[in-house]
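pls read this protein:
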Amino acid sequence: MPTLDTPHSILNEVIRDVLKRWGKSTRAEVQLMPFNPSILGFVRAGQETIYVNTVPLSGVNHDNLGQYLYVVILHEYLHLLGVADEREVRRMTLEIVDEKFGESSFAHNLSLNLADPRDVMLMNSWKNGRPHTYM
């Protein structure tokens, strides 16, 4: 039986959360492997596998492991669903992570560091009641 922090159980949680929010799902599996440490994870076109990089994963504190895997797997799962735009996937990831873990979480900080600064500024402007626009 998997523990809460196994990649398989986190993938199942991601699938449930995305299905609940957007009503969409797809088949997926997770494979851990080492590759270029500047890349946290990736998917290949036409495949159902989410590759998670074990190099940066090995440096994550055990207490934050589940949240780290959730962010990486969620991000790549959104690509599997057909969202190709990297900026949009990062924005969507930040939205889900904020709702699930809150803004004081490790997952939020990781997602925030990956998000486009323009999207972060726009999201923050909505919280202050004065949304900025690009007009």
Observations:
- The radius of gyration is 15 Å.
